[in-house]
């Protein structure tokens, strides 16, 4: 007969529960996976399938009862790790939406706002359009599969353990959040530069012919120039989008690696590259 002790059952539960928590954390925060339009049942089934594939290759787990105080702390830690990795990629899409917001305000389309299900708020039409373009590019380059691969690697670089975080994890994620403004401004520069030239030209034209109604011709001209420049720049967005996707994936890979290493004391020599 087969006899199972309570320790064996707890080991089996922990072997799936703790990796599943990290996987679900990433699915909740990552773009595409965490879309509110996807039913929760589908997300949960996807998380269980990924966890069942990853769990056999996870290093030795700590000997702790999943329902004990130490087990609950490990559960919270795994959830934070998954959320942080997903948030690293979500920041990339926030930068693209920031570029759309800047372009909309410059074009005069700031009033054209719609409900955004990703952020549960309102965003401009150009921001949602660029977010859809970024989503299609994200799926076209298989970045979602690369993100799952990075998640599987994180169990090697940062194994499941009861040890606290080291290396200032939240500061690293906050520093990466600055990419929203820098990348968003860079992606919107073609539209902003073209509209700046257009506004200067309209100012000179109004100065030369004061009888022209600037408010009557200014809005159609800036809107038309903005849409034209946006259409012309779309074929050239593949390179910048792939570059920012690569940076987001590398950040998601770097976070668990840095969190699992002890912090360097001030003035210490840098660690050799692996």
How are the elements arranged and paired?
Elements: H1 6-29, H2 40-54, H3 69-107, E1 113-116, E2 121-124, H4 125-140, H5 143-157, H6 169-177, H7 179-208, H8 214-233, H9 238-259
Antiparallel strand pairs: 1-2
Helix pairs in contact: 1-2, 1-3, 3-4, 3-7, 3-9, 5-9, 6-9, 7-8
Membrane topology: Multi-pass membrane protein
Function: Role in flagellar biosynthesis.
Transmembrane segments: 12-33, 40-61, 67-84, 91-114, 126-148, 180-205, 217-237
Question: Can you give a write-up of this model?
Answer:
- There is one protein chain.
- The protein has one domain (7-114, 121-259).
- The longest helix has 39 residues, at 69-107.
- Strand 1 and strand 2 form a beta hairpin.
- Strands 1-2 form a two-stranded antiparallel sheet.
- By secondary structure, it is an all-alpha fold.
- The protein starts with 5 loop residues before the first helix and ends in a 15-residue tail after the last helix.
- It is built from 9 helices and 2 strands; from the N terminus they run αααββαααααα.
- Helix content is 69%, strand content 3%.
- It is found in: Cell membrane; Bacterial flagellum basal body.
- It comes from Pseudoduganella violacea.
- InterPro entries: FliR, T3SS_IM_R.
- The chain crosses the membrane at residues 12-33, 40-61, 67-84, 91-114, 126-148, 180-205, 217-237.
């Amino acid at each position: 007969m087969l006899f199972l002790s309570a320790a064996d059952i707890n080991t089996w539960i922990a072997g799936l529960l703790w990796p599943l928590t990290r996987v679900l954390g990433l699915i909740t925060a990552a773009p595409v996976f965490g879309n509110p339009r996807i039913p929760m049942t589908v997300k949960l089934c996807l998380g269980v399938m990924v966890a069942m594939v990853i769990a056999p290759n996870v290093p030795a787990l700590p000997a702790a009862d999943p329902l004990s105080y130490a087990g609950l702390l490990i559960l919270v830690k795994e959830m934070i790790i998954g959320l942080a990795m997903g948030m690293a990629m979500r920041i990339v899409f926030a930068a693209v939406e920031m570029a759309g917001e800047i372009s909309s305000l410059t074009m005069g389309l700031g009033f054209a706002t719609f409900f955004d299900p990703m952020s549960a708020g309102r965003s401009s039409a150009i921001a949602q359009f660029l977010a859809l373009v970024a989503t299609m590019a994200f799926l076209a380059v298989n970045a979602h599969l690369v993100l799952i691969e990075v998640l599987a690697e994180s169990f090697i670089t940062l194994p499941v353990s009861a040890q606290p975080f080291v290396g200032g994890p939240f500061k690293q994620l906050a520093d990466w959040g600055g990419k929203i403004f820098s990348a968003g401004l860079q992606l919107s520069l073609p539209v902003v530069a073209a509209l700046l030239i257009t506004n200067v030209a309209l100012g000179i034209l109004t100065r030369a012919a004061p009888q022209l109604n600037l408010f009557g011709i200014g809005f159609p001209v800036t809107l038309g120039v903005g849409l034209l420049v946006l259409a012309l720049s779309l074929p050239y967005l593949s390179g910048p989008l792939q570059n920012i996707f690569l940076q987001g994936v590398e950040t998601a890979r770097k976070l668990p690696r840095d969190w699992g290493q002890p912090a360097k004391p001030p003035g210490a020599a840098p660690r050799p590259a692996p």
